[in-house]
């Protein structure tokens, strides 16, 4: 009770005259406030930073484990990639070459004729080189029966060289009541590029659009 009585009778203008017990109390209280403020403004932020660093450490460990697993299998993956590239080159070699392309177009036209189709339009367009192959668009219009078109497709598939025909904006519509159909649109066939042609095509595709257009906007 003496402490409470001393606390009620404090003279704020005479701090030096306060009882020793009161001075110790306020000193401890001030120390506690300083410690609490220091924890709130310093230690708390450091704990947040420590938690963030701990999370980042876990992420880095996971990334390291993933990269380490890839590094362990790198040689095997590289070998598989080389094998796949060799297979791709072998498959591409089965496509027509540049010198065989004109003969191939004649063979396709002759196959349509042999199937009994009436070719009203067979117009090859400009060749479009890609990275490792070139595509040749052909605008065509053919008239015949469903069976004749089936014979034509079978004949193209049996040509000596691997022939790939893809259809683009092609329509098949009836012409009359006798079962005649009209096939018209654009088909594309493909050939492989020689090594020097492939290098040129890759270089051309890598150039910016402005350079390809001669700097014109």
Automatic annotation (TrEMBL):
Residue ranges spanning the membrane: these are: 21-42
Q: Which InterPro entries match?
A: PilO, Transl_elong_EF1B/ribsomal_bS6
- What PANTHER family does this protein's entry cite? FIMBRIAL ASSEMBLY PROTEIN PILO-LIKE PROTEIN-RELATED, TYPE IV PILUS INNER MEMBRANE COMPONENT PILO
Which branch of life, at top level? Bacteria
In Pfam terms, one family for this protein is PilO
Coiled-coil annotated residue ranges, if any: 43-94
Region annotation (Disordered) maps to 198-217
What is this protein identified as?
Type 4a pilus biogenesis protein PilO
Compositional bias of kind Low complexity:
201-217
Organism equals Dyella koreensis
Keywords annotated in UniProt? Coiled coil, Membrane, Transmembrane, Transmembrane helix
